[in-house]
TrEMBL record:
This is Succinate dehydrogenase cytochrome b560 subunit, mitochondrial. The chain crosses the membrane at residues 97-116, 177-194. SUPFAM superfamilies: Fumarate reductase respiratory complex transmembrane subunits. Keywords: Heme, Iron, Membrane, Metal-binding, Transmembrane, Transmembrane helix. InterPro entries: SQR/QFR_C/D, Succ_DH_cytb556, SuccDH_FuR_B_TM-su. One of its GO terms (biological process) is tricarboxylic acid cycle. Pfam families: Sdh_cyt.
Length: 195
């Protein structure tokens, strides 16, 4: 179709090359004017488009600075104070956060072992004798990220290997079950003594 239109334009309307810009503007503003009938001239200020009820105004160019074009104080999307994260998203974020906490904890334990005057066992025993009220919170602070990261990691491995249980209702159900298992395991590990 483009070849036919171009052929029609070049052979039948050769005199229009002199006023090509006026021809294009008049054809764009009027649905009645066609390329085949170049004898119809349309005044650009009086022409109306077929999809608008307003009269077309002459085109003008205005210059603006770049800071005038920016809209100030517009929130980015997704805006964290508006949207509520679903349970699978929160659990995924917490899986990564507990992994970071465990990595930092192991690095800190290794740093204490390497650079402190005493080994880590000395400081753990000192915590038990001088601050006995902090023993259970400290054990829970270690047990919770460990059990959570382990359980969610096992679930991710199960998803990767079997490609089962990855629909939204199944993920939410398994997430609730996993949270209950993590609560029981971390509480049990907090109160169990390994002496």
């Amino acid at each position: 179709m483009f070849g036919r239109t171009l052929n029609t334009f070049t052979y039948r309307n050769a005199p229009l090359f002199k006023n090509f810009d006026k021809f294009v503007v008049s054809n764009a503003l009027s649905s009645k004017t066609s390329i085949i009938a170049p004898t119809q001239h349309v005044n650009a200020s009086n022409a109306t488009s077929s999809y608008s009820t307003q009269t077309n105004k002459p085109f003008t160019i205005t210059e603006k600075r770049i800071d005038e074009l920016r809209t100030p104080h517009q929130p980015t999307s997704p805006h964290l104070t508006i949207y509520k994260f679903p349970l699978p998203a929160v659990m995924s974020i917490m899986h990564r956060a507990t992994g970071i906490c465990l990595g930092l904890g192991v690095a800190g334990l290794a740093g204490v072992t390497l650079f402190a005057p005493h080994d880590a066992i000395y400081y753990i025993e000192m915590l038990q004798t001088q601050y006995p009220a902090l023993v259970y919170p400290a054990k829970f602070a270690v047990a919770l990220p460990l059990t959570y990261h382990f359980c969610t990691g096992v679930r991710h491995i199960f998803w990767d290997e079997t490609v089962k249980g990855i629909t939204v209702p199944q993920v939410e159900t398994s997430g609730k079950i996993l949270l209950a298992v993590v609560a029981v395991l971390s509480t049990a590990l907090t109160f169990i003594s390994f002496k």
